[in-house]
């Protein structure tokens, strides 16, 4: 459910204070406030957002204003959809890459 327009967006006070006292290019700002909305003042800063295990760096651009910090730091890691077919497809891709690399390596040698 969206926050009331009367209340305005939620921006963590400590985070806003850190942004106002820090220069734009002076490293990442560590934060655990994933629910904090991205304010226009945050544009150009890098935040280290906590994912539950480690910190993910997020560089804020103009397009991100209004979204939450947590949206840009996923807490789960997607491994892949598995199965026999997926393994075969990955092996074919790997063989195609090896063949392309060997062809590229052989082409300059043939010109000499």
Description:
The chain is α+β, with helices and mostly antiparallel strands. It folds into two domains: 13-72, 2-Layer Sandwich (30s Ribosomal Protein S19, Chain A), CATH 3.30.860.10; 79-112. 33% of the residues lie in helices and 12% in strands. It is built from two helices and three strands. Strand 2 (46-50) and strand 3 (55-59) form a beta hairpin. It is elongated and about 70 Å long. The mean pLDDT is 87.
End-to-end Cα distance, whole Å, is 68 Å
Structural class: alpha+beta
Count of individual helical segments: 2
Low-confidence residue ranges: none
CATH superfamily placement of the largest domain:
Ribosomal protein S19/S15
What general outline do the C-alpha atoms trace?
Answer: elongated
Name the beta content range. Answer: 5-15%
Q: How would you characterize the largest beta sheet?
A: 3 strands, mixed
Task: Indicate the CATH class of the largest domain.
Answer: Alpha Beta
Give the overall pLDDT as a whole number. 87
Give the tally of β-strands.
3
Side-by-side strand order of the widest sheet:
1-2-3
CATH-defined architecture of the largest domain: 2-Layer Sandwich
Summary keywords:
30s Ribosomal Protein S19, Chain A, 2 domains, alpha+beta, 112 residues, 2 helices
Write the layout of secondary structure elements.
Elements: H1 13-21, E1 29-31, E2 46-50, E3 55-59, H2 84-111
Parallel strand pairs: 1-2
Antiparallel strand pairs: 2-3
Concise structural overview:
With 112 residues, the protein is of the alpha+beta class. It is 33% helix and 12% strand.
